[in-house]
Amino acid sequence: VEKNDLVGRKVIVTAGGTREPLDPVRYIGNRSSGKMGYALAEAAKARGAQVTLISGPTKLKPPEGVAYVPVETAAEMRQAVLAEYQVADIVIKAAAVADYKPQQVALQKIKKAGDTLTLVLEKNPDILLELGQRKNQQILIGFAAETESLLEHAGDKLMRKNLDMIVANDVTQAGAGFNADTNIVKLLYRDGRIEEIAQMTKRELADVIFDKIQQIVKK
Ligand code: PMT
């Protein structure tokens, strides 16, 4: 059955991984495929929302009927999200954003020279932290991709970034995390509740996430 419970809602989803350029031909990236974020955008659209999908480069086709904003770097993603944040009802940050970027972007291709090459990186803005600080009416949902101490790290991000819920995936598990078609997650809430969600497709999980958001809205 098709639900229409997001009619009249404005939803922003970020997806994919950012790319931080080193020189004209190289970048620092990560293994995000965009599948989780695109599934969320598709689910929100199917439930009647007005959806903006802000995405790093992926091989995926944006779902029909969503406003699509392609970006590359964390700085571009930040600009795109902030441009629509104040009028959004629900913001979900499934993107894998680079925490650091090269301090210098070489204007020419870096030439092969010594046996080692040292890169100096500087911190990127934490977009989600900033959204949490500027939060008004929005329901703000983050993801946490962890390889150790899943609940501890995810719980810390939930509170520190002022989120309503965080979706924690242990990305070392088979069938979970980067590039998988399924995910296995735990949902953490501000009141300390933790819900374990069994393995399911990212599209199915997207609907579970919107069901949980609706419960938060009703409270
Ligand atoms: O794209 P797929 O291949 O389908 O993979 C899905 C996924 C593993 C990428 C996704 O499920 C996921 O976990 N996304 C978040 C990945 C991540 O960067 O997690 P993090 O723990 O480093 O960041 C925590 C949260 O802060 C995330 O919501 C992230 O979008 C946000 N963040 C992080 C750093 C930064 N500079 N700005 C941010 O907004």
TrEMBL record:
UniProt KW keywords: Decarboxylase, Flavoprotein, FMN, Ligase, Lyase, Magnesium, Metal-binding, Multifunctional enzyme
Enzyme Commission identifier(s): 4.1.1.36, 6.3.2.5
Protein name: Coenzyme A biosynthesis bifunctional protein CoaBC
Keyword Ligase among UniProt keywords: yes
Pathway note: Cofactor biosynthesis; coenzyme A biosynthesis; CoA from (R)-pantothenate: step 2/5; Cofactor biosynthesis; coenzyme A biosynthesis; CoA from (R)-pantothenate: step 3/5
Catalytic activity line of the entry: (R)-4'-phosphopantothenate + L-cysteine + CTP = N-[(R)-4-phosphopantothenoyl]-L-cysteine + CMP + diphosphate + H(+); N-[(R)-4-phosphopantothenoyl]-L-cysteine + H(+) = (R)-4'-phosphopantetheine + CO2
Gene that encodes it: coaBC
Co-factor binding comment: Binds 1 FMN per subunit.
Region (Phosphopantothenate--cysteine ligase): 11-219
Provenance organism: Propionispora vibrioides
Chain's role: Catalyzes two sequential steps in the biosynthesis of coenzyme A. In the first step cysteine is conjugated to 4'-phosphopantothenate to form 4-phosphopantothenoylcysteine. In the second step the latter compound is decarboxylated to form 4'-phosphopantotheine.
DNA/pantothenate metabolism flavoprotein C-terminal domain: residues covered: 6-215
Cofactor: Mg(2+); FMN
Lineage of source species: Bacteria, Bacillati, Bacillota, Negativicutes, Selenomonadales
GO molecular function: FMN binding; metal ion binding; phosphopantothenate--cysteine ligase activity; phosphopantothenoylcysteine decarboxylase activity
